[in-house]
Design brief:
heterodimer; A: about 80 residues; alpha+beta; Glutaredoxin; four-stranded mixed beta sheet; 3 helices; B: alpha/beta; FAD/NAD(P)-binding domain; eight-stranded mixed beta sheet; about 30% strand
Chain lengths: ~80, ~300
């Protein structure tokens, strides 16, 4: 698949773990950015999603479109992929 | 087991929190085919709780995430299957129960409803507008964004107390706004709050509005009920823990009887009014909202399900 998936997380966020588990279950590869370990990336998440609440999942599709999910919502994630 | 080429599980458990995971440990050890369906976090609200000090067997406490992971591993070790998906409807087809889910239709001989509860919204101006930009309901998720910042925590129960203590890892100061004249949290937690220099408890204080601008939350406006005066608390973020709502909206068109608050009614055998459908844990009417009792009810439900299946 040519889409690129990024999951923004924090250390103790259980919902973040569920997003990663769901992506693993469905066989999607993704990169994780831990905002607690990389606080300099927090502003980009806020600007991109309008929210500083994790998990934030960003899908950059092959056609250049970008979709963003804040929180763990299976229906939303499925519609993005 | 299959019937008419469709798989029928012995038991499907809706929700994968401490109650159903405990039930699954029991059913799978009895060789009862068990499927759990979870739409949120495995472990439920327990999984997003920083530390649990009152679950038996952990003298130094245990993180909610660790307890949840251990329950999951234990249930899966004995053969429980966990599906990530959402049940949207439950109907009866004779003795078989039909569950419509986001992952397809599933059939079961018995169902255990253990969907737990979710944090209630406060319902004040600014709460929705600033959700995720200063208003939060999960301290373990979003607390890290408030290093050296000022916070307001709304609520006076165990969740508010426990999560306030967690947030002191990051925040420079926390104002706790408690509507009533005393806190509902346990004495142990209240003592910890009072010993913590970063926390100020404001009893008899309502939360009326969350105020901010395009950069986020700036202050919380409330009322001091004793003085009858408006009070303001400057802050960078607000965490809200003001009670729990049952996760039963998917049952609204079902035959399963709920109480006036939306919790599932059961008898002492944890049976609902629909034969073969059981309920346990926080979602059950009359539940004591403790992880230990949710686990205990899960074990009881498993034994009742076994008996039902044998008959």
């Amino acid at each position: 698949m040519s889409q690129n998936i990024t999951v923004y997380t924090t250390n103790s966020c259980a919902y973040c773990g569920m997003v990663k588990r769901w992506l693993d279950t469905k066989g999607y590869a993704y990169q994780e950015i831990n905002l607690e370990e990389q606080p300099e990336r927090q502003q980009e998440v806020l600007e991109m999603s309008g929210s500083l609440s994790v998990p934030v999942t960003v899908v950059n599709a092959a056609n250049g479109s970008k979709s963003i999910a804040v929180g763990y919502n299976i229906g939303k994630l499925a519609s993005m992929l | 087991m299959s019937e008419n080429n469709r798989e029928i599980h012995d038991v499907v458990m809706v929700g994968a929190g401490p109650s159903s995971l405990s039930a699954a440990i029991y059913t799978t050890r009895e060789d009862i085919d068990t499927l759990l369906i979870e739409k949120g976090v495995i472990g439920g609200l327990a999984a997003i709780t920083d530390k649990i000090d009152n679950y038996p067997g952990f003298p130094d406490g245990v993180s909610g995430l660790e307890l949840s992971e251990n329950l999951r591993k234990q249930a899966e070790k004995f053969g429980a299957k966990i599906m990530l998906g959402e049940v949207t409807k439950i109907t009866g087809e004779g003795e078989t129960k039909r569950l419509d889910t986001t992952e397809g239709t599933i059939y079961a001989k018995t169902v255990l409803l253990a969907t737990g509860t979710d944090h209630r919204k406060l319902g004040v101006p600014g709460e929705e507008e600033f959700y995720g930009r200063g208003v939060h309901y999960c301290a373990t998720c979003d607390g890290a964004f408030y290093r050296d910042k000022k916070l307001v925590v709304v609520g006076g129960g165990n969740s508010a107390a426990q999560e306030s203590l967690f947030l002191t890892r990051y925040a420079s100061h926390i104002d706790m706004l408690v509507r009533s004249d005393k806190m509902r949290a346990s004495d142990v937690l209240i003592n910890k709050l009072q010993e913590n220099d970063k926390i100020t408890i404001h009893l008899n204080t309502t939360t009326d509005e969350i105020v901010g601008d395009n950069t986020g939350v700036k202050k919380v406006v409330g009322t001091d009920k004793i003085k009858g005066q408006k009070v303001e608390f400057e802050c960078d973020g607000v965490f809200i823990f003001v009670g729990l709502n049952p996760n039963t909206s998917f049952l609204k068109d079902s035959a399963i009887e709920l109480d006036e608050a939306g919790f599932i009614k059961t008898n002492s055998r944890l049976e609902t009014n629909v034969p073969g459908v059981f309920a346990s844990g926080d979602v059950r009417s009359g539940a004591t909202m403790q992880i230990a009792t949710a686990s205990g009810e899960g074990a009881t439900a498993a034994l009742m399900i076994r008996e039902y299946l044998e008959n």
